[in-house]
Amino acid sequence: MAGVMQTTARPNPFAALRTRWRDRSPGLAAGLLGGAVAAVLGLASCAALVTLLWISSPYPDSGPDGALHVAAALWVLAHGAELVRADTLSGTPAPVGVAPLLLLLLPVWLLHRAARDATDPGDGVGVAVGSGRPGPKAGAGVRPAWMEGVPDAGPPPVSARNAWTGVVLGYLAVAAPVVLYAQGGALRPSWWWAAVCLPLVAMGAAGAGVWTAFGRPGGPVGRVLRVLPRKLRELMVEPDARLGAATRAAGAGAAVLVGGGALLLAVSLVWHGTTAADAFLRLTDNWSGRFAVLLLCLALVPNAAVWAAVYALGPGFVLGTGHVVAPFSSAPASQLPPLPLLAAVPEAGPGTPLQWAAGAVPLAAGAVVGWFTARAATAGAGAAWSWRRTAGAALVAAVLCAGLVALLAAFAGGSLGNGALARFGPVWWQAGGATLAWVAVVAVPVAVGARAWRCRGAAAPRAVEKGGADEGAEEGRGAWPWTRLPSAGRWRWLWWRRDAGSGAQAGKRGGSAGRGADGKGMPFGLYDDEGEAGDGAAYDFLPVDVPVDMPVDVPGERSGGGV
């Protein structure tokens, strides 16, 4: 035994490291990786397309290095950044600022998907992120039916701040060297435009992805709206979440405008089919070049649809400095690029009644906005909105629709050179102002009239439903009563679920103090924090600051000095 040495058993350090790596909650690192992968995938798609066109070209102007420079510049252009063409005949660099809107969908979709997946801890099942209620988690699989009662033992979900920051930083970490590399090609990104557009697109798309993954909560929207005056906030949001209804109506109106513009574009291309075909054949004499022109035209179709929509609104669009194409007069520039899409531009001269008929597109958009607003005003189980509230919601929808169209017009236009080619496309503030005038004038009376018609048609069913609800309350059935609690500067809502056959009198009090009683309450979940829900099963939403001396009757508990 004298030769035996005493040793201490030491754990394997790699086993502890593997355990910590397996049980970690993914945060900033996962977001960084997701953002970098999104940028690489978008860049690889552009590189593959440009390389295919370069290989199929019978007379390439440069080698593989030049094709990769063009692919990098095209990827930067897809974010809305302006390019500068250095090799011009005059020797003066010429800007290229018309970004195809179809290319913009690729980085936006990749960023949205990366940000949505960055919030998933990777277990595949769990509760909805940020809601505190059971359900499928955004960005993950749905929990099987046989696992409904099994608690979720996986890692906690990633916070919205970490996921958003990681995706944005990872994306920009790849974008910065790409912009530097593209400076050595014939098409060079503008430093100013690249520094503004790339972060804006990354932050906006990643923010939308995280917001979608967390169930589109109203808390961030409420915190943004706190800077507005009280009366304006009440007009937009309180008491029946009119902002969401107005946003949906505005989106529907903008979709009708752009869809109507696409229809006008198709009709004009068919009308000028011979001119468009001649321009397509005159640009190049080989099939690879014609395929490239076809891809360019397809990528610019959304831009042309926005141009046609603004044309129908009245202001029209600019084809060269000082040359405006509008329904009442058309004066395009004499020397335009021989692009097949430009063959759809009306001939120079005064407008005709056929061109004035394009005004039916904004009329239809305003009617759709009014109809969506009226449907939201009468969709609730309680009393319908008053005509004043309906008109206010339609006006808010018109403002939102005008802002959306102005943003599309700003992205759809740009410059194609210097001098006469310095301005191409619609003017964003003119497009937004015309949209506001058209939609507001049409949507408000349509919304008020449709609301009255829907209320008149649904009067009898509502009366029957109300009688059945009163009878069920008297029998002691389950209900969702509301009560309003005062707090500093605004109202908060407290609600609970009453069990079957208990607290009939409390249910009556809750029904009388319902959400639509006087229309002064704050909608549920508007000012809640990000996914911070209480652990108690009796309450889903509690007031932040309740006076201590105010008793509150809660079913199943005795009222005391506070809640």
UniProtKB/TrEMBL annotation:
Pfam families, sorted: DUF6350 (PF19877)
InterPro entries on file: DUF6350
Keywords per UniProt: Membrane, Transmembrane, Transmembrane helix
TM helices/strands, residue ranges: 28-55, 67-84, 96-115, 163-182, 191-214, 249-271, 291-313, 354-372, 393-415, 427-448
Descriptive protein name: Integral membrane protein
Species this chain originates from: Streptomyces olivaceus
Lineage: Bacteria, Bacillati, Actinomycetota, Actinomycetes, Kitasatosporales
